[in-house]
Amino acid sequence: MTGINFSPQIWWSAMDRAVEFANHMGKNLIQDFNFKNWLQNGSIEHNSLEIYQVSELEDILTGKYEYLQNNDYYYRVFFKNSYGKNVYASNISDLESKIFGQENVQIEYEFRIDALNHYITLHLNNWLTYGDYDDWFRWRLYYYFLVNKLDEQLSGIFNYYWSTILSQLNIQTHLFKSVEHYKKFRDEYEEINKNSDTFFLAHQKKLQLKKL
Measured between alpha carbons, how far is 51 from 115 in angstroms, rounded to an integer? Predict the structure, then answer.
């Protein structure tokens, strides 16, 4: 293997195909669901910027790699006021000015699906191109954080979306830098695809039961 960059055309083709498949599955599971709209406008919430634990990666980070578990991305912060209404701000400083002496405030963070998906794509593409461990860890950090935070149906649809993308990248074996580079990718893809297959088969079974 000599390794040639994965071109934008390969990514666009894989993503277009994945969006179409994920949208079709989503419409069968969720009424009036539009995958592309959800991907662009959806969000999740978490009570901390520490997303490493949620991702449940088995990587042991020591020495120079410890910093990789840190995350500074969020879309906005919020807290629930005494009336039960969420109060939002773009950063912690602005939010604190809106608390007005309220005690025992639980600050939470909102993350946009499109931003998390961007980081997944960015770091995976960087790893495919350069092979750096930093990017290998980062794309999985954001991927599994999102998959583990979503509810069962959305998690399954998103996982199916990425399984479809990875399947298209998996056939481009000549673009990987080395056999070891490809095998590392393949092992992760097969794990994601296994989870996707389980969800897909359950989805097909539900469709068959509806027809009875």
Answer: 15
